[in-house]
Amino acid sequence: MTTKEDTMKYVLLLTRGAWQEEGSEQERAEVFDGIVEWFTKHRADGTIVEANQLREPETATTVVVEEGHSSMIDRPLLEAKEAIGGYAIVEVPDLDAALELAASFPVPDGKVEVRPIVER
Amino acid sequence: MSSADPVGAQATRSLIERVFREEAGRLTASLVRLLGDFDLAEEMVGEAVVEALRRWPSTGPPRRPGAWLLTCARNKALDRIRREARFKDRLPQLAARIEALPDSAEREPDDRLRLIFTCCHPALDPDAQVALTLRAVVGLTTAEIARAFMVPEPTLAKRVTRAKRKIATAGIPYRAPEPEERAERLPQVMRVVYLVFNEGCFTTGGDLGVRRELVDDAEWLAALLAAALPQEPEPLGLLALIRLHAARWPARLDAGGRLVPLADQDRTRWDAQRIRSATALIERAASLGRTGPYQIEAAITAVHCEAPGWKETDWPQLLRLYDMLLALDPSPVVRLNRAVVISHTEGPAAALAQVEALTGRLARYHLFHATRAALLRDLGREEEAAAADREALHLTANPAERSLLTARLHGDEGTG
């Protein structure tokens, strides 16, 4: 449909919605099934170039560099309610396509930041 | 337009403004599409206008000013893309397409539609959508937009620059939505046009001349949408609504610059021809068979415009229209306006009860207090009415509304 020159790359940063903490185990399992299906479908059609789920935010360490020295903080960069749960790199014709894809991410709640990737 | 008579500088300037609005907007839109660069496109068209301003006062305007501007901007664009390295790879292709830009008569409104949908893209901040539309589609300068919205010019300029940059770097597509996605995107575009109109007609105040121009700009944008999407009824409704308000404009202020309530306006000063043209638009929209909030608002305004006097207004018809509007838009402001109609069909006590039920949601809205004051006054409750008017005065910055409220508080409203 489109040649490589006509596409743009975006990263979709997926937050962990409240559903990951709440709801029954079965409800969570159903959502996960939907997510897996979504990734499988969009990997197969070539829209998703790469995607990964991240370990829980409690496993994150934030490294801060100041005046050439680094120190560490035992927590993620972002507040718990906006903690990133995973990401996907997508290749689509334009922002509309990326936004449509983000809106179709099958979760009960959550946010998706859509950011263009600098291509060199 | 066909005359080549030498004209004065002032007339030349107003001719250029008119041509600019009709032609340069289209031309900018075409160039943005070809070059993928807002700033460059605007710059080329801007240079052509400067050239026109320099030449036309001495030579007289050309026979076809639009075509002249097109040729001039086209040449400037060609010079520029030949000089700029970033266009090198695409040069032959671009040059051919710019050469082939059709004359205005053959040009479709498609490019401008693309431009307006891009400027009103939901990924842009709503304030930026309004500013960018006025800048890129209407062709106002950032200084003019800043003045109209009473925003410092650097703030406004930054807003426009940021939006343009986001369009380019985030990959916002330069296109109008396909018919099937239009239902989702069109309301957003109409909202931007409505905001421009609303700012001109009702809100923050500032220079009256500037605000009148905003109403004209909104009318022009609505006409553009209506012409480009002839099968969509709501842009026709929006255009009719704006045109009806514009028709009443000459009567809305008294000699002292004070807002004249609709009830007291001199209806002989309304523009009857514009009202007729607007009601024809409403009928055309209705014939398309899909009603919507703008069409109903326009119909409500038309009922007022067609009444020979305030007392002769068809209140039962208005009530029917407000009930339809409420079904689509159950907002407290619509309920407030409906209560005004109730005061004429059932009396002020019934209306006041409905208004007071909205206190919690509209306590910060000056027209809530002004409406309540008028009803209290009808019921002879003078002191409470004065308190409500003071509250309304406290909440509005609009100078024309302020002077009306102040006059009411001093008891000299009966003169109108």
TrEMBL record, chain A:
InterPro entries attached to this UniProt entry: Dimeric_a/b-barrel, YCII
Gene3D superfamilies documented for this protein: Dimeric alpha+beta barrel
Coiled coil feature spans: none
Domain of life, per lineage: Bacteria
Signal peptide: none
Pfam families in alphabetical order: YCII
Domain YCII-related residues, every copy: 8-119
Family to which this protein belongs: Belongs to the YciI family.
PANTHER family per record: BLL7171 PROTEIN, BLL7171 PROTEIN-RELATED
Identification of the protein by name: YCII-related domain-containing protein
Organism: Streptomyces roseochromogenus subsp. oscitans DS 12.976
Automatic annotation (TrEMBL), chain B:
A GO molecular-function descriptor: DNA binding
GO biological process: DNA-templated transcription initiation
Domain RNA polymerase sigma-70 region: 20-86
Stretches assigned to the RNA polymerase sigma factor 70 region 4 type domain: 116-167
Keyword vocabulary terms for this entry: Sigma factor, Transcription, Transcription regulation
InterPro entries on file: DUF6596, RNA_pol_sigma-70_dom, RNA_pol_sigma70_r2, RNA_pol_sigma70_r4_t2, RNA_pol_sigma_r2, RNA_pol_sigma_r3/r4-like, TPR-like_helical_dom_sf, WH-like_DNA-bd_sf
One Pfam match: Sigma70_r4_2
Domain DUF6596: 185-286
Family: Belongs to the sigma-70 factor family. ECF subfamily.
Protein's UniProt name: RNA polymerase subunit sigma-24
Organism: Streptomyces roseochromogenus subsp. oscitans DS 12.976
